[in-house]
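Protocol step 6 of 9: fold each sequence in the batch and record its structure tokens directly after the sequence line. For illustration, a two-sequence batch is reproduced in full.

Sequence one:
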Amino acid sequence: MPASEESDDDALYVLTAVVLTPAQFPSVLGDDYPEACTALGLEPYEAGYGLVMGQDGDGARWTVVTDDASLVACAVAAWDCGMEYDLAIDERTVVVSLPGWPLAVAVAAPGVPAPHDPEPGPERGEAATSPLAPPDTERWGPAQRRLGADEIALQWALWREQVDSDVTFVSPGEKPHGRVRRVLEEARGYLDAPPPLGRVRSAFASGDARTLRADGPGWSLVARTDDIAFVLMDDAPGEVLPVGRGPELPGLLTALDQLAVRPG
């Protein structure tokens, strides 16, 4: 990632950035967009934010929140394609600078001290708050459950192949596991009572299909609208339960896709 060209000790050496919008946010932070915003002390504005993570001249970790989400989205897209992009944030778009990083960052800025949390103080205008830190994913829980669902969405073909081999297959029409049935019923409940923004998200998949991500209290669901679904639950550590098409799933996925938020 590009680093700031400024020599001022207060300059931010940019390491990475992510988008925080209703349709695209780090799900490790919450089951929906408002919950993810709350984790960062932000108001859940529908236009969203960009989170720019880097180090100052002393090596301290900082997360700069900008309301120019489109600029950050462009930078992330360029980086994902292996292109250089000098992400320079206009100070007028900065919402707040928060100490620490909310996500794990595996790189560090060259020529500055190793990453560390800044000392509490009034620098940059922020109050003496506890530094942000990535959620604990060492033990199974909500954060790891959501990360697992993200990984399945990213590696769909790999997980789909396992269903055809050695993974237990359940279908809504075959009286599936009671906990899976509960998840499907709660997901169907979203059709009558729309959930918080971002609780159901839809992204591009192959052909005319869409990839669905839905979350609820203690569960995550990832599916392709033309295929099956996978369910992960807080009370089933490490388990990934496939849900077959059956007579019910296609209609449920189509309906969820219609109410889901999509990237702009």
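Sequence two, same batch, same settings:
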Amino acid sequence: MKSARFSVWLAQRPSLQWLREELLLAPLEPILHPSPRRLWWLGLSFFSGNALFAWIWSSWLPQPYENLPLRVMASLLGYSLMTRRVNHDPGSRLTQRVFGLVFWLELPVLFTWMYLCNSGNTVWLATMAAMVLIYYHVTDWRLATLGTITGGLLAWGLFLLFGPTVPPLPQDQRAVHAVVFAFAWSIALVLSLSSANLRRTQLANTLTTIGIMAHELRTPLSTADLLGDAIKMEVQRQPNNPRAPQMEKLALRLHTLVRNMNHQIDTQIANAKLLQLPEHTEMVSAIGLVNDVVAAYPYQSSRQRECVRVHLQSDFIFQSSSRQFAQVLDNLIKNALHSLMAADSKYPHGALRIEVGMQRDRGRISVIDDGMGIEAALLPHIFKPFFSSSRGTGHGLGLAFCQQVVHSAGGTLQVKSEYAIGAIFTIELPIAGG
């Protein structure tokens, strides 16, 4: 009742509703436009940029204050983004935390420190304005706002405690600097908000289009399902009809086709919701989840079903969404079966294996297939949204969704593969309460 009243009250106040949607409900994007290559180039810009400007401000265009040890440390921070451990998986929590820390220290903290130590001269006034624009361009506007405030306050506190003795900013220049900072900050905020709204609008339009297409596809599928029911009823009325076995097989094929197509539609809708995954606190049993998914999967044939083997070593409980993780396993099973099909496999027993167990203090779910595998050149790209290999093995379709769901549960999704040998997708998850 209180929730309904609050919703009505909020609906009458558009400004507060907009603020709630922007601050609380909009998905947080710690890294804008993430990719391993972009992280590498950002790291290189810090690594080489600090060395370059150390020379410019000390030798070519000397400034009152320049600090080589600080520049060296800043360069090393930039180098961290160039390492494969950090940049190979932009969606991981490690990468997001390192990225956030590096940019916070490099931009608001270091730049404010240098601005104060140089008495707010024109060079560092312009640099500070550029810093604000850059910061809002690489991370979520909420994180950029919080980082600018906290980083500026930390640098100011450090300057009061350890900073050099320099003349203060002239009184008549303080208002000028305040106006410049306000202008840079307001423009950065407006541009960042506009970009965030544009990304969400594009995603919403995509989901709307997919929803319309799904509705249009489900209508003829429902008709096909009804036809299958009608054929089965006809077989029951005429059990002695010599064509009854063929008619029953036709009805079964129609029902299987409808089930498979509906499954594909659900999969694509789930994959399209990549940036709209809500937080979940559901306790999920790994063994229960795997058993349910394997039993409910819409196999195309009994032979395909019989090739799947489940090895249950030990159960563990993790915190996430059972529905989302069921979709993850659906994607992995689908890709594995496609890979077996591409290898002209006859689906021998055990060609697709799903293992559930624990290693040290983490739970593990592995999906292993003896299919075509993945070429080494494609491995760095398979977790990109909607990436698929030209060989049609199916690997990579929806893997970005899988990775996002696993990361939202605090886990990791890794792959090992050799072309023409097979692939192993391993999910590692923190154990709830562990």
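Proceed to step 7 once all outputs are recorded. Observation for sequence two: The beta strands are 282-285, 308-312, 317-320, 352-359, 362-369, 412-418, 422-430.
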